[in-house]
Amino acid sequence: MDIQNTIQTLREELNQHNYNYYVLDKPTISDFEFDLKLKQLQDLEDKHPEYFDENSPTQRIGGAITKNFQTVSHEHRMYSLDNSYSKDELADWEKRIQKVLGDVPLEYTCELKYDGASISITYENGKLKRAVTRGDGFQGDDVTNNIKTIKSIPLKIKGDFPSTFDVRGEIILPFAGFEKMNQDLIEIGELPYSNPRNTASGSLKLQDSAEVAKRPLDCLLYFIIGNKLPFNSQFDGLETARQWGFKVPKESKLAHNLEEVFEFIDYWDIHRHNLPYETDGVVVKVNSFHFQDELGFTAKSPRWAIAYKFKSEQVSTKLISISYQVGRTGAITPVANLEPVQLAGTIVKRASLHNADQIEKLDIRVGDTVFVEKGGEIIPKIIAVDFTKRPDNSEPTKYITHCPECQTELVRGEGEANHYCPNFYGCPPQIIGRIQHYISRKAMDIEGLGGETVALLFNNGLVHNYADLYELTVEQILPLERMAQKSAENLVNGVKNSVSIPFERALYAIGIRFVGETVAKKLAKHYKNIDALSQATLMDLVLVDEIGDRIAQSVIDFFENQENRIIIERLKSYGIEFEIIEKINPNATNKLSGKTFVVSGVFEKFSRDELKKAIEDNGGKVGSSISAKTNYVVAGDNMGPAKLDKANKLNVSIISEDDFIKILNES
Ligand SMILES: NC(=O)c1ccc[n+]([C@@H]2O[C@H](COP(=O)([O-])OP(=O)(O)OC[C@H]3O[C@@H](n4cnc5c(N)ncnc54)[C@H](O)[C@@H]3O)[C@@H](O)[C@H]2O)c1
Ligand SMILES: [Zn+2]
Fold first, then answer.
1. For 51-78, what is the mean pLDDT?
2. Residue 603: which residues within 8 A CB-CB, separation 6 or more?
3. Which ligand has the shortest distance to the CA of 430?
4. Span 58-77, mean pLDDT?
5. Pair 17, 28: CB distance under 8 Å
6. How far apart are CA 12 and CA 32, in angstroms?
7. Ligand 1 within 6 A of CB of 237
8. Torsional class of 654: left (φ above 0), alpha (ψ -120 to 50), beta (otherwise)
9. Which of 334-343, 400-409, 604-613, 620-629 has the highest mean pLDDT?
C-alpha cells in the first residue's frame, strides 16, 4: 500500500474508533491500541507534510456533537491533551517549553488524570447557567439539566468571584456507585456495564434527567477559565475552586522541577489503585498563567500541559478452555479459563468473554496465548490474542448451540447480544437461580437459608420452585449434608416467617424479568395487589410511571404463563398476601388525647365503622355532630356545609383518612 493510502486508511479507522468511543460509548479497541494507531498516523503525517489535512484525527478532537441536545458554542475552546508514556517524553516536552520561554525556573502543577467525560460549566453572577459537553472542542451538547442533578456541583457559588467564568471538570462514576449499578442490573438479569468511564459518559447523554439523577455521578474540577480571575496560576486556581465550593481532589501537588513531577508519577502509579475512582494518568501543567499564555496551543491541545498515561496493567497467559455459564434468566455467558497469572495485585484465573460476537471478533481459540487487562481496574478482560504464539493445530472456536446444563437448543433474539436457554422451567441453573433470588436479602430475606442450601435442596429433589420451600419439613431436610436439627428447624421457621412481607418485596422476589426493586415498588404502588397487576394490559402498564414496553411485555408474559399462575396461587395459600395492606396500629393507645378533629373525605381503606372503632380504642369519643363535648366526628364524604361551617367556627381541624391513619400509626 502506498503512503497516501496507509494514511487514508488510518484516518478512516481512527474516525470510526472516535465515533465508537465518544458517541456510542462503546469502544472496540483498548486506549493503548488507539493511541498507538494515532501515533503511527502522526509520524506518517510528520514525515509527509504534503498529505496534511486539517480534518485528520491528529488535528481534531475526536468527540462529536449529538443531535439530541441543543448545540452550544464554547466561549473558550475546549482542548484535548497531548499524551506521553515515558519520562523521556516528558523531558522532551520540557525542552520544547524552554525553547520558547528560555531558561527560566518552571513550576508544574501535577494532577491526577480522572477518567470520565469532560464538562464545561458557565457561571453567571455566581449561579450555574449552563453546562456543555466537550463535543468537537468548538461546540458541544447543552446538558445543563443532567448536570444539575449532580450534587457535588454547586448551583450557587460561595465567596468572591468574577461576574462570569467557566469551570472545567470531569464527570466520573466512582467505583462503588458503578458496582452498585451493575449489581442492580445483574439482579434483574441484565448485562452489566463494561466500565465506569463509558457509563459516566453515556449517562450525560440520557434524555431523562430524572434517570441521570439516579446515577451516582460525581464531578472533579481541574480548571477555571475566564477574565478577571482573582489568581494567576493553575495551583491557586484549584485552591480557589475549592473555596467556591467545587470538589477538587486534594491529591494535586505543586512541583518545582521535573524530578518532583516524576516522584508524583511514581507514587500515583502504585497508589492510584486505592482511589475510589478511575484514573488513567497524571496531567502536568505549567503553573504560571503568564507562561501558559506565552506557550499557547497547537491545533488540538495546549503546549503548556501534557498527560502522562499510566500503562494499564497487562499480562499474557494461556487460554486453557472456554466454559459457558447459564444465568438465572437463561442468558449464556462464555468464560475464559486461564492459566493462573498475577495481575494488579490479584491472581487471575478467569475472564469474561461476554458473548459469541466477542469471541468471533477476538478470534480466540483454546491453546492461544492472550493478553489480559484489568478493564476499569475491576473485571479482568481479554484484550487480544498473541497470534505469533498460536499453535499450528489450533481450531476456530465453535460457539455452543445447546445449553450445557439441560441440552436445550439455544436461542438468540434479534438485536440481543447473548444466547439464551429457553428451557425456563427445566434448566437447573435457571431454577436454582430463581429460588436463590427469591430468598435473597432484598427479596424475601429468608433467615436460615442460603444460596448453597438452595442448590442442595434442588439437587436432592426437595424443591423445584420457590413455592416448594413452604412445604419443606424438618424430617425431609435433616438427612442433607451439613444439616443438624437446629439448622433444619431454623430453615423451616425462616421460610414460615417470611410470609408477612410487603407486596413490593414479594413482587420483586418472584423474579419477573426486568422487574428490579424500583420497578417492583412502582408496580406495587400503582396496582395495590397482584390480581390487578396480573390482569393489566400492555396499554395499562405502559401508562405507569417509568414502565416501558419491555418491562410491560415481560409482566404480561409472566402472568400469561400457567405455571407462574399456579405458583402464585400456592404462595397465597401459604399466607403471602401480595397486596398493599393498610393497617391501623392495634397497639396504639391514647394517640388521640389532646386533639380534636373531624375525619372527612372519601374513605378508601377502612369503613366508617372501622374508623370509629379505632378512635374509641384510642380513648377518643366519637360524636355525630360537632360539639364541644365530642372530640371526633367521622364524617365521610357527605359532610354537609353546615358541619364544615361549624368545624371552622369551633376551629376544629378536618383531616383525611390517610392523615388519620398516620396519626394512629405514628410511633
Ligand atoms: N479505545 C478507543 O477506541 C478510543 C477512541 C478514542 C479515544 N480514546 C481514548 O480517549 C483518549 C482521547 O483523548 P481525549 O482527547 O479525550 O483526551 P484525554 O482524555 O486523553 O485528555 C483530555 C481530557 O482529559 C481530561 N482530564 C482529566 N483529568 C484532567 C486534569 N486533571 N486536567 C486536565 N484535564 C483532565 C479532560 O476531560 C480532558 O478533556 C485517549 O486516552 C484515547 O486512548 C480511545
Ligand atoms: Zn438450559
1. 90
2. 611, 636, 637, 657
3. 2
4. 89
5. yes
6. 18
7. no
8. beta
9. 400-409
